[in-house]
Amino acid sequence: MGNSASTWLIIALAVLAANLPFLNERCFAIIALQRFAFLKSMFSRATGDVPTTDLPVADPRVNGLVFSSSDGSLEKPIHIQSLKDTSAPVIKSLWLRLFELIILYFCVGAIAFVLESAAGNRFPQRWEFYAINACLFLVLAFPGFVYRYLKHHHG
Questions:
Q1: What is the DSSP string of 90-115?
Q2: 3-state class of 40 per DSSP?
Q3: For the segment 22-56, what is each residue's pLDDT rounded down to a tens digit?
């Protein structure tokens, strides 16, 4: 790959990676946030809520355990709810989006490092280079931030 093509590839990857956290509700556009819903059920005991799970469990406020029925299968108590609550979609917080942005900055930097090393002219960089690139990455993320937080969605 030529120097010009690798430069444009890094620029395109940087624009895509900088806006990716703001354009979807998945972690790194791959992992659905519902997979981390078990954390919500772990912390629900502190508020006194009933744990939400698909597995048969015993509620500590109820005397007894989850009993098996006459055919040997486990019965799930009626008061235990399912995680598949479709009424409220899971929305990423700004902190999670910023964490993704930092991770993606280092991923794009690693790809750029590999492409520069493959070209054969690897130059040593000091901290100023990385600080300027981090600021440039934040500027490239601004359209996604505007779309997510500043644009009013009508309709």
A1: ----HHHHHHHHHHHHHHHHHHHHHH
A2: helix
A3: 998 888 888 777 666 655 554 444 444 444 444 44
Distance CA 9, CA 11 (A): 5
Q: Write the CB contacts of 57 (distance below 8 Å, at least 6 apart in sequence).
A: 51, 66, 80
Of 72, 47, 46, 77, nearest in space to 62 by CA: 77
Tokens 């000091």 locate to 126
Contacting residues for 29 by C-beta, under 8 A, at least 6 apart = 20
CB 148 within 8 A of CB 26: no
Strand partners, 68: 74
Taking Cα atoms as reference points, which of 137, 145, 148, 141 lies closest to residue 107? Answer: 137
CA dist 116 to 6, 24, 138, Å? 8, 30, 22
Q: Looking at the whole model, is its pTM more than 0.85?
A: no
Q: Token pair 């790809």 is at which residue?
A: 111
21 closest CA partner among 109, 97, 135: 97
Structural tokens at position 133: 């690139």
